[in-house]
Amino acid sequence: MPVANLNGTEIHWRDAGSGSSAVVLLHAFPLHSGMWTRQIAALERKHRVIALDYRGLGKSGTPPEASTLDLLAGDVRALLAHLRVGRAAVAGLSMGGYLAFELYRQAPGLFRGIALCDTKAGADDEVGKANREKFARTALEKGLGWVADEMVPKLLRPGADAAVVKEVRHLILDGTPAGVAAAQRGMAKRQDSIPTLATIACPALVVVGAEDGMTPPAEARKIADGVKGAKLVTIPDAGHLANVENPAAFDAALTAFVDGLPA
Ligand code: MLT
Predict the structure, then answer these.
(1) What span, in angstroms and rounded, lies between the C-alpha atoms of 147 and 175?
(2) How far is the CA of 261 from the centre of ligand 1 (A)?
(3) Of the residues 33, 95, 151, 245, which should be mutated to test ligand 1's pocket, given the most ligand atoms within 8 Å of the CB?
(4) Cα–Cα 20 to 30 A to 32, which of 49, 60, 73, 237?
(5) Strand 9-16 and strand 48-52: pairing?
């Protein structure tokens, strides 16, 4: 994976395909760009696909402060400037969706299109913020095995395929407790993106796993209702990580959207 020092942090990313149109993939918590392997393979036939590991997750460096969405969006912008990519289709799943909203606020002109997958627009309430702080402290105390035990049942549907469970556990175990804590503390500080919905002026796709318990179909419906012209696709036989649990249906929806974007 290529690496560069961006905004004072070592950022690693995957860069595949050579098309003139770029697609940026923003991953979920507490995973890394490796969760997009199948989507990269599907998209790279026609597009250049860029998927970074956020600071603190995957291979990227972990600065001491909270990984706020503001900082992460700054990292994405710095990476795209480094790669001389001026416009892109941006797809974010869950935390990646929170990041896509922030990136849109910072750089709407970057977006050829936006795909908001298994995510929600609202911010955390006080209980949600307190739960994230508790999670951060426990992750630091008990380590990544505990993080994987906590998260895997939430990320996948009940009775998920054993190979998928193993794959997602591995993606989580690639992180560091400090990076996981920094991401939770950053997400707790994120702003409400509900007012952002009506400002989104590029083509938009909303995707949700039919059995997503973390950001259920009702959240996807709220996003689709709030973004003018957004198309909503529900992925059968999939929970929160719809791209990992049903890649065939997910990739069909994402590639059709990206391929159909005006140049
Ligand atoms: C994710 O899947 O990215 C996160 O679990 C979302 C969250 O914690 O709000």
Answers:
(1) 10
(2) 28
(3) 95
(4) 237
(5) antiparallel
Q: Ligand 1 pocket, 26 CB below 6 A?
A: no
In this structure, what token pair is assigned to residue 30? 């507490």
Nearest-atom index, ligand 1, CA of 241 = 2
Residue nearest to atom 7 of ligand 1 (CA): 95
HEC-encoded secondary structure of 225-248: HHCCCCEEEEECCCCCCHHHHCHH
Q: If you measure from the C-alpha of residue 29 to the centroid of ligand 1, how many angstroms do you get, rounded to a whole number?
A: 5
| Best residue among 25, 27, 29 to mutate for probing ligand 1, ranked by most atoms within 8 Å of CB | 29
Q: Is the CB of 95 under 6 A from ligand 1?
A: yes
For 186-236, write each residue's pLDDT tens digit. Answer: 999 999 999 999 999 999 999 999 999 999 999 999 999 999 999 999 999
Please report, as a single letter, which amino acid is at residue 139: A
Separation of alpha carbons 155 and 121, rounded Å: 18
Mean pLDDT of the chain: 97
d(CA 98, CA 96) in angstroms, rounded, equals: 5
Residues 8 and 60 sit within 8 Å (Cβ to Cβ) = no
Q: In this structure, are residues 241 and 35 in contact, taking their beta carbons and an 8 Å threshold?
A: yes
237: exposed, middle or buried (C-beta count within 10 Å: 0-12, 13-18, 19+)?
middle
Give 19 Cα–ligand 1 centroid separation in angstroms. 31
Q: What pTM was estimated for this model as a whole? A: 0.98
In this structure, are residues 171 and 31 in contact, taking their beta carbons and an 8 Å threshold?
Answer: yes
Contacting residues for 162 by C-beta, under 8 A, at least 6 apart: none
